[in-house]
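Board notes (copied after class):
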Amino acid sequence: MDTITHTLFGLTTYGAIKKENFDRQTKRALLFSSLVGSQIPDIDVVVNLTETGRVMEQMWHRGITHSFFLVPIWAVVIYIIAYLIWKRSHLLIFYLALINVFIHNATDALNAWGLEFLNLFHE
């Protein structure tokens, strides 16, 4: 999937929750959690973590950062960052990150390039 599609998934999950009883800072933390969660597995492209050359970039992309084993770890990292910025500890912040990272990995697994969703490391 492309960045725009992942972002739309994040915005959709954010829009699907009932936010009337939350203050502005909590809403910001929830939006952050949704959007970052929907994008974070692609951080390997941004930091060239798995790139070994232009030809190999797509083959190595979707390795460790897209592992389903890392979904809860990404969610915890996003939750901690949101807490440090907005000082909000609502569990929904964690759950939005968790579901959006999972959706990112699941949708990437459905296209032609696939996903090494059970691998932590390339061989």
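Comment from the instructor: The CA atoms of residues 9 and 38 lie 7 Å apart. Helices lie at 3-16, 24-39, 43-46, 57-60, 71-86, 91-109.
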